[in-house]
Give the backbone structure.
Amino acid sequence: MNSLSSQTKKILILVLILAVPGFLYYLLTQKGKNRYKPLPFYGPKEVAKTGHRFHGKYIPDTIYHKIGDFRLTNQLGEQITPKDFEYKIFVVNFFYTHGPVVCDAMRNNIDRLAGAFRKNRMVKFVSITVDPDRDSVAALRAYAKPLGYPASKWMFLTGDTTSTYKLARNGFLVDAVKTDDEFIFSNKLILIDAEKRIRGYYDGTSIAEVARLNDEIKVQIAEELRKIKAPD
């Protein structure tokens, strides 16, 4: 009897694990209703010369920070630019293949996220090396291979240090610098929306923070779908 009760509990837990994310997604997207609070925007903002009316009141538009242009190379030797992320949500982190424990923790947590969104073509993952001298295309390909994701889902990118560090600081607004033989870089996972704006920062070594990112990716998916469905 106790064995049967234990088995029933396990089945119920499994059903909840599978059902709750789907139900959450339904609540976020049903008939385009605003059932969620949009994610914040990070970075400098400026007031635009344009505006719109809401309930008869004129509201100036806001210009939010965007990550800007870049040209890097992925693990297949392909040139990657912002055009490769048109209409996509993506999660970015900085790392290096021979890095410390923090790099392994971030990789494992991103692996879980990438697995959860493996079939969703709207979501991509991007890991940018801070040590391009050692992390060649071949090194990145060897690093990515055991993870088992196509480059279209999880990109490992390299480029010269000048452009990479500038992109980190001015684009993603995080630290990335080399001092002697040590690399100083952020352990944040950065959520970017389809318009290349920063929507969230998360500690890439924290299970709780990565779980929050998992949920907020779904919120951002809902926002992007609402924009697609919105009338002209």
User: Anything to note?
Assistant: The radius of gyration is 20 Å. The helical segments are 2-29, 101-116, 137-144, 161-171, 207-229. The chain has five helices and eleven strands.
